[in-house]
Amino acid sequence: MNFEWSILLLGVAIFFARIMDVSLGTLRIISIVQGRTWTAFFLGFFEVGIWITIISAVMHFIEEQPILGVFYALGFAAGSVVGIKIERKIASGHLVIRLISSKHGDELVRAIRAAGYAMTVYQGEGMHGPVTELFMVCLRKDKPAILEIAQAIDPEVFCSTQNTDTGSRIYRPGNHAASGWQSVLKIR
């Protein structure tokens, strides 16, 4: 096997194209799970278009240049990681957060509500006595801010999160009741 720059460049192109199509695939699957039909449609269209282009290049040369298969596989693996990182950065969707505190429930309620988030509060009984549970539905991108407030007040707060399709109303700092496109377009 002779080293050729053209094969190396083709391999690098395959690697980066695979990152693109697998990242789009990751975002498409998440869109499907979240019920965003049209987003999934368009992501799937571009994903398959890129994939067909890549696979035709790889299949044409794979017998003569097996190294292209390695570039293909590495691109797939890297695309999975990149897709997850992009999705985490975008943080689309909704989340249910439950915070349980045995000592600082009232302080948590005041601080999180003062930051503009709404919640429902329950009084309960934990293993070692009374606890306060805060239940809220928020945008996924709000999770770090809410947890930062909670952990600053009660470092021992128990936190549980769960993805959810949507909430009928999401209260956020500054927009009280607007969510999704309503918050972007300022529709009330």
Number of domains: 2
CATH overall fold name of the largest domain: Alpha-Beta Plaits
Percent range for β-strand residues: 15-25%
Count the DSSP helices: 6
CATH class of the largest domain: Alpha Beta
The first-to-last residue Cα distance is 66 Å
Largest sheet features: 4 strands, antiparallel
What sequence of helices (H) and strands (E) makes up the elements?
HHHEHEEHEH
Strand order of the largest sheet: 2-3-1-4
Mean pLDDT: 84
The percent of residues in helical segments reads: 55-70%
- Rg, nearest Å: 23 Å
- What is the tally of beta strands? 4
Overview of this protein structure:
Mean pLDDT is 84; it is low at 181-188. The protein is elongated, with a radius of gyration of 23 Å. It has helices spanning 5-33, 37-61, 67-90, 105-114, 143-153, 181-185; strands spanning 94-101, 120-126, 129-139, 158-164. It has two domains: 5-90; 94-185, Alpha-Beta Plaits (2-Layer Sandwich). Helix 1 (5-33) runs antiparallel to helix 2 (37-61) and helix 4 runs antiparallel to helix 5. It is of the alpha+beta class. It contains six helices and four strands, in the order H-H-H-E-H-E-E-H-E-H. The longest helix has 29 residues, at 5-33.
